[in-house]
Each structure stands twice: as structure tokens, then as C-alpha cells.
Amino acid sequence: MVLSPTVTIIMPVFNEGGNLSIAVNSIILQSLKSWNLIIVDDGSTDNTRELAYAYSEKYHNIKLLVNKDNRGLSYSLNKAISQTDSEYIARMDADDIAMTGRLKSQLRFLKDHPEIDVLGTGAEVLTGHNKTIILKPENHNNILKSIEKTNPFFHSSIMMRRSFIESIGGYDNQCIRAQDYDLWLRGVDNFRYHNLQEVLMVYLSKNQSFKSIHYGLKVRVINSFRRHRVIIGSSKGVLVFIYGLWVKALRALK
Q1: Burial letters 234-251, b for 16+ CB under 10 A, else e
Q2: Which of these, 23, 55, 132, 176, has the minimum number of CB atoms within 10 Å of its CB?
Q3: How far apart are alpha carbons 150 and 154 in whole angstroms?
Q4: Beta carbons within 8 Å of 45's beta carbon, 6+ residues apart
Q5: Which pLDDT tens digit goes with each residue over 197-254?
Q6: What SS3 state is found at 95?
Q7: CA-based diameter of the chain, in Å?
Q8: How crowded is residue 146: how many other Cβ atoms within 10 Å of its Cβ?
Q9: Which residues of 12-31 are buried (b: 16+ CB within 10 A; e: fewer)?
Q10: What whole-number distance in Å separates Cα of residue 19 and Cα of residue 172?
């Protein structure tokens, strides 16, 4: 069991040898010093495991867990969560960068606002050579209005209360894609969400594959039944699916 300061960052990784050091170093350099980092190597075949192991040997508050085979993001996230009992859990991806004040700003906000269960931030989004500042919807009411159309958070910017992730049953191991979106949809009616209107992450944009677009639709439809919003939720899901295919087709033509 990891010693438990206030915040634990969970970071599943798969073949991220070229990125891992930048992401981990951005955590080490945080102005908040009371944290643990759990890295889960999900069956990498490059040097990811060796790099993560070197960090775990050097820093007492960095722990490496290893999946012998590739088990997927949801499984790895749940595995990491099971190894800590800290009050707050933060997410981080191996190809993103946390600004120095990220953890301190989020922790301060959550302590000042006990009604908020999940807290995200804005991000500087890198797409090729382009940089774009994106701020997600700020308060819960605005998130509630738009969540059926778009993911309300940058997943790697999240800090959430342990009570939230335990009450909701963790990530769904059956979700191969859109695991985070499924989680937010499952919790939006019973928990409170918020996004800081500050850029506290550098986020590497990933081109959506057809599988990702398909799973986005699947998650929207499943949760529209769960939330008793079948017609509205499914209709929005189909429209977003069509839009996603259209955008992908346009990019392919460039």
C-alpha cells in the first residue's frame, strides 16, 4: 500500500518511452509537494517500464505497478485507484504536461468548495505545430447542458474526490474507448462537476480513430438509457457521431 498524502496521481502508460520523462518531471516540479504518483505499465514493449522503474527507485513517492499483458486503460486506472487511499485522486497522461501550480490550485479549490466532486482545468492544446487555448464549460449547470454532445473535461486535468470514484464504482472495464466520458455521464446527475478557467495543462491532441468515434456513440446511447433520456440523448449522440465522421473525412482529404 502506498503511503497516503492528500493527493495521488494515477498514470497508466503503454509504450510511452519517448514521452514519459516530460510528464513525470512535470509532476516532480509541482509547487504542491504532498503527493504520490502511481504509474501502471500496461504491458509496454519499449523502454517505458525501465524508465518508470528508475523513477520509482529514485523517488519514494513514485510507485510502479506492472501488467504482464496489455489490459487496457480502465483496468489499469482501477488497479491504480485500488492501491491508494488518499482523499483526492488526480489523472495524468504520459504525453501531457502539468503546469507547476496545477495540483495546488485544484486542491485549494476542492477544499474551498466541498460541493464539487470532479474538477478539471483548461489546457493549451497542441495539434501538430499549432497551439490553442481551450477552456471547458465552467460550472455544473453548463456542463449538464452540453455533456450529451461533448466530453466536459480534459481527462488528464482531472482531480476528483475518492468518494466520487468509489460511489460510482470506478471506471467500466468493458469500455475500450471513451472510459472517462462514460464515467462523467454516469455521475453527472448525482455529483457536481466544475472546470477551473485556468490553463494548467499542456494537452497533446490525438486524432480520433473510427473506433473512438464509434465508442463515443455507444457510450452516449448506453447512458441515455441509464439516465432515462433515450430520445434526446440518443439523438444528440447520433448527430455527434455523424459530425465526427464528417470531420475525419475532411482531414483525410487534406
Answers
A1: bebbeebbeebeeeeeee
A2: 132
A3: 11
A4: 15
A5: 999 999 987 655 546 555 566 676 676 767 666 555 555 545 444 434 434 444 445 5
A6: coil
A7: 54
A8: 13
A9: bbbbbbebbeebbebbeebe
A10: 26
Strand partners, 111: none
Q: Give the type of residue at 143.
A: I
> What is the DSSP-derived secondary structure letter of residue 156?
G
C-alpha cell belonging to residue 70 = 496489455
Torsion sign across C-alpha atoms 229, 215, 130, 97: positive
As a whole number of angstroms, the distance between CA 24 and CA 22 comes to 6
Side chain identity at residue 38, one-letter code? I
| CA pair distance 198, 136, nearest whole angstrom | 10
Give the whole-angstrom CA distance, residue 76 versus residue 179: 11
Q: At what angle do helices 179-187 and 210-226 cross, to 10 degrees?
A: 20
Give the global pTM: 0.84
Return the C-alpha cell found at 203.
494537452
Cβ 209 vs Cβ 247: under 8 Å: no
